[in-house]
Design brief:
Elements: H1 4-13, H2 25-31, E1 41-47, E2 50-56, H3 69-86, H4 101-120
Antiparallel strand pairs: 1-2
Helix pairs in contact: 1-3, 2-4, 3-4
Length: 130
């Protein structure tokens, strides 16, 4: 299990050069756009008395907290992962990535690689066992 709150707290506490600057300019541009609300999140809604899965835009930033580029990068990568592994319940005409799937997958991989480098350098991860 990933403790996403711990991941967010850790990356938010790092200096920009330790995480944010470790992802490409292209990834930062893709994720940290002015609206900061993509990729979409799949949600269950009630439509005409029936439950339906629908992709919706939601802010990457945590409600009630100041915007954090580090947390937005992690949240976007997490959404791509969730959409790839848990998606497929939507209407076939509805897409989470709006035609740029490969770009979102590449951006999520870029963020994941930066997170793995942090784990490799002991910034966070599972506790050591004697």
């Amino acid at each position: 299990m990933v403790n996403w709150r711990e991941v967010n707290a850790t990356v938010a506490a790092l200096r920009r050069g330790e995480f944010i600057d470790q992802v490409s300019n292209e990834t930062r541009r893709k994720i940290l756009t002015p609206t900061r609300d993509r990729p979409k999140i799949q949600e269950m809604i009630l439509a005409h008395g029936l439950r339906k899965a629908e992709f919706r835009l939601r802010p990457l930033d945590i409600p009630g907290q100041p915007p954090s580029d580090a947390i937005a990068l992690v949240e976007a990568a997490r959404r791509v992962r969730n959409n790839l592994f848990h998606g497929g319940k939507e209407d076939s005409g509805e897409q989470p990535f709006d035609g740029d799937d490969e770009e979102w997958a590449a951006a999520a991989l870029d963020v994941a690689m930066a997170l793995l480098r942090l784990v490799d350098h002991g910034a966070f991860g599972p506790p050591d066992h004697p």
